[in-house]
Write a structure and sequence with these properties.
Elements lengths: L2 E4 L5 H11 L4 E6 L4 E2 L16 E3 L5 E3 L1 H11 L14 H23 L6 H8 L2 H11 L13 H12 L11 H11 L2 H16 L8
Parallel strand pairs: 1-2
Antiparallel strand pairs: 1-4, 2-3, 4-5
Helix pairs in contact: 1-2, 1-6, 1-8, 2-3, 2-6, 3-4, 3-6
Glutathione binds next to loops.
């Protein structure tokens, strides 16, 4: 079975959201992102020289990194027509667009600095100032649709939903964006997501990783 190297509550949780929604079975190899230690022994560096998640190990032993790519691979394996978006689908490039938007504008563009312990508060606030333009773009887009591609929850939503799992801890304030708030509540209320978030909170503590401090 395909294995996801997964640090609780980090971006690899987006991959778990996608797998759950798409009905794609994954073996989960837990790790502590702070120490880089794999629960089964060895280090994250053994499977990704950058020491980062997400990493997907396919059945042939090859590995995929980059969360956006991992998400797109998972969605390509899904048999759930409510989730999967085929390359021939007129919305396929919207799927690529929003997955990459989440990767570059939100995940790396905002979280990278704001969660960097050594960054000063001034630098973090400068990066937080980038958020309103991005939130407004999402706000406008979500004014007429429940999810990024319309009625269906796709791999792009898995990424955006994960962003909202940690955005409060990053002190990114989206309360002034009603469509975004409604989206956040709608997405995070999905049973599969709620269950995975809860089990990751437990595992985060068990591994003493503390992505979300007490
Ligand atoms: N380019 C990678 C970056 C992912 C990334 O920043 N992952 C974070 C967790 S959300 C991480 O592994 N951080 C540890 C580190 O950078 O040392 C991707 O898109 O998957």
């Amino acid at each position: 079975m395909t294995t996801l190297y997964h640090a609780p509550l980090t971006c690899s949780l987006a991959a778990r959201f996608a797998a759950a929604e798409g009905g794609v079975p994954l073996n989960i190899a837990y790790l502590n992102l702070r120490t880089k230690e794999l629960e089964r022994g060895g280090l994250l560096y053994d499977v990704n020289p950058l020491g980062q998640v997400s990493v997907l190990e396919l059945e042939d032993g090859s590995r995929l990194t980059e969360t956006a790519t991992v998400l797109l691979w998972i969605q390509s394996q899904s048999q759930n027509p409510e989730f999967r978006v085929d390359p021939q689908d007129p919305d396929y490039f919207q799927l690529l667009r929003w997955t990459n938007f989440c990767a570059t504008e939100l995940h790396k563009g905002l979280f990278r600095v704001v969660f960097y312990q050594e960054a000063t508060e001034a630098v973090k606030d400068r990066v937080r100032d980038l958020a309103p333009l991005r939130f407004q773009m999402l706000e406008d887009h979500l004014a007429t649709r429940p999810y990024l591609l319309g009625d269906r929850f796709t791999a792009a939503d898995a990424y955006l939903a994960w962003f909202f799992v940690l955005s409060g801890n990053a002190r990114l304030d989206h309360s002034a964006y009603p469509n975004l708030e409604a989206y956040r509540q709608r997405a995070l209320a999905r049973p599969a997501l709620r269950e995975l978030i809860e089990s990751d909170r437990v595992k985060d503590k068990e591994l003493d990783q503390q992505i979300i401090p007490d």
